[in-house]
Design a protein that fits this description.
The chain is α/β, with parallel strands linked by helices. It has 21 helices and 14 strands. The strands form 3 sheets. A 7-stranded mixed β-sheet has the order 3-2-1-4-5-6-12, with helices on both faces. A 5-stranded parallel β-sheet has the order 9-8-7-10-11, with helices on both faces. A two-stranded antiparallel ribbon has the order 13-14. Helix 13 crosses helix 19. The longest helix has 25 residues.
């Protein structure tokens, strides 16, 4: 795999550090639209794909919702707090405004709580992209909030982030080990180590900690940032208690700090994410939406599908195969013959995916699972090839220091252990056809394999694990592999799997309408929606479902 994406990332970061202050200055003095064609030509000339609109995104959102939150005729019965820390340019701010206006129309008081941009460490940082080497990161993030507040009339508060006392910093700096970091709590028992850990893993694009000085240093930084956040939220909730808190992913240290507060104060909260397409929307009350843990809900709904519902499901699965539901096409949609003999395919996730991080049922991490499975195969299986399929998204990962699956697997390759790298032209669905069975950690391809009649041994916390072969411990896991190798016949409960996937894809994953988000060039099309009423009307059915599922029934 070449490192074209890493080179592009470094180039983008270098030029962005110089162009962002210029763009913000032009935006402030009202000349951005005049100079944008020139800015975009310069960006294109240096080989960067990103393009700016004639107006920054936050202005597009604010213009659509101009005056939307200026007044309410009746006294609100309940309060919903939107905790939003993804930045005023984020497309998710538009979604939050839509949801907020919908709730206000149902007589809720709505208010936003946003980051001031003074936190020591936050969700946006990654190796090669931190506050230290991106000096305008905080400014870029918080830049447009004041205008959105002024233009829309929404109540928007800023999280009170204060500098830590020297004694606080010294206490954190005196930590000697990662174990101390993971177990670190405040004097009032706020679990800062747990709150910060996933951000440390995300920072390094890792699935587990290796235990070195660099990790220790970054972990301390996130402990300090999490302490600032927890104290800021303590101050905010000292005289307020909303009825509902709505946030985004729920995994990063800021959201985890809010979840800690919500659970401590017994306040319901909702997390949200995208899943299959940039306009998609999944949500969960008092849980993490991206975990897709909807089994209990499905069991209430669960029915055998009729012909029309089956057609709906299989048409959607066909779109997944052809890459039509993704923002970025992951692989060639053609599923042709491949020159490989029948074997077993192990499908990986990206080991830093928030869907996977910290959700280990049998192994310490996805990387540990991968290495132990390879070692087992080398020692115990001689006549069946093991194909290791690296997630196609890895090749598109821009970070300059990720440890790819290729790097983990390469020392172990032999004639019986074969790597299908993330940039391989071999289609994952072709591999399924060549598989006696598949092995997954949490990859969605496990569900798709079973839908094609290919059994799945699941070693992680996958949303489809109730339908897969799920060992109770590592010993049973390896026993299952031996038994599957000798006889791969395994009953699959297709009827219930179809029903569950139909519920997940058709009833729990929604698509926003009325705007088009293209992350590749940052374009957001609201050309036909000059006012927010159109957005609310076009999305009323999914907003009604959201309210029914998360607020009324929850």
């Amino acid at each position: 795999m070449n490192n074209v994406h890493q080179k592009r990332f470094k180039k983008t970061k270098f030029y962005k550090n110089y162009t962002i202050p210029i763009v913000l200055f032009l935006d402030q003095i009202g000349l951005l639209s005049f100079f944008i064609p020139l800015v975009n030509k310069l960006i294109k000339f240096v080989g960067i794909k990103k393009r700016f609109n004639s107006k920054l995104n936050y202005r597009i959102y604010a213009d659509s919702f101009e005056g939307a939150f200026s007044s309410q005729k009746e006294k609100p019965s309940k309060t919903a707090l939107f905790f939003f820390t993804m930045g005023s340019e984020s497309s998710f701010l538009l979604r939050q405004l839509i949801i907020a206006k919908y709730l206000e129309s149902l007589n809720w008081k709505v208010e936003f709580l946003v980051c001031s941009g003074n936190i020591i460490a936050c969700n946006k940082e990654r190796i090669g992209k931190s506050k230290e080497n991106s000096p305008f990161m905080c400014r870029e993030c918080s830049w447009g909030y004041s205008w959105v507040k002024k233009q829309t009339g929404i109540q928007m508060n800023t999280l009170n982030i204060t500098k830590l006392k020297p004694s606080d910093l010294k206490k954190i700096e005196n930590i000697k080990t990662l174990e101390e970091c993971e177990n670190y709590t405040t004097e009032d028992n706020a679990p800062l180590g747990r709150i910060a850990k996933k951000n440390v893993l995300r920072y390094f694009y890792q699935g587990s900690l290796i235990n070195n000085e660099n990790e220790l240093s970054v972990f301390k930084k996130y402990l300090a940032g999490s302490l600032q956040t927890v104290r800021g939220l303590n101050h905010y909730f000292s005289d307020k208690k909303p009825d509902l808190i709505i946030m985004m992913n729920g995994v990063g240290n800021l959201d985890q700090s809010m979840i800690y507060q919500a659970e401590k104060l017994n306040i319901d909260y909702i997390t949200q994410e995208v899943f299959y397409g940039s306009n998609s929307w999944v949500f969960k009350k008092n849980g993490i939406a991206i975990h897709l843990n909807y089994m209990k809900e499905w069991m209430k709904y669960g029915v055998k599908l009729n012909i029309k519902q089956k057609e709906e499901l299989y048409n959607f699965l066909d779109k997944i195969k052809k890459g039509k539901v993704f923002q970025t096409k992951m692989h060639d949609s053609e599923i042709g013959p491949i020159p490989l003999e029948k074997g077993v395919t192990l499908f990986t996730n990206m080991n830093f995916d928030t869907y996977v991080l910290g959700r280990n049922s049998l192994f310490k991490s996805m990387e540990n699972w991968l290495i132990e499975t390879i070692e087992f195969w080398k020692e115990n299986v001689k006549d069946i090839p093991l194909y290791i399929r690296a997630h196609p998204g890895e090749v598109k990962t821009p970070t300059p220091a990720i440890r790819f699956v290729r790097d983990i697997v390469k020392p172990h390759l032999n004639e019986n252990i074969i790597l299908i790298d993330s940039d391989s032209e071999i289609n994952s669905y072709s591999l399924i056809k060549k598989s006696k069975y598949v092995i997954t950690y949490a990859s969605t391809v496990g569900a798709e394999s079973m839908m094609q009649g290919v059994p799945c041994v699941c070693a992680g916390e996958a949303f489809y694990k109730s339908f897969a072969i799920v060992p109770k411990n590592t010993s049973e896991y390896f026993d299952k592999l031996l038994k599957m190798n000798s006889n791969s016949k395994q009953d699959i409960d297709i009827d219930n799997l179809e029903s569950f996937l139909h519920y997940l894809y058709m009833k729990r994953i929604f698509q926003f309408e009325g705007f088009d988000i293209n992350r590749g060039d940052s374009k957001i099309d609201l050309s036909n929606l000059s006012k927010y009423e159109n957005l609310i009307e076009q999305n009323k059915s999914i907003l009604d479902s959201f309210y029914q599922m998360c607020v009324i029934n929850g």
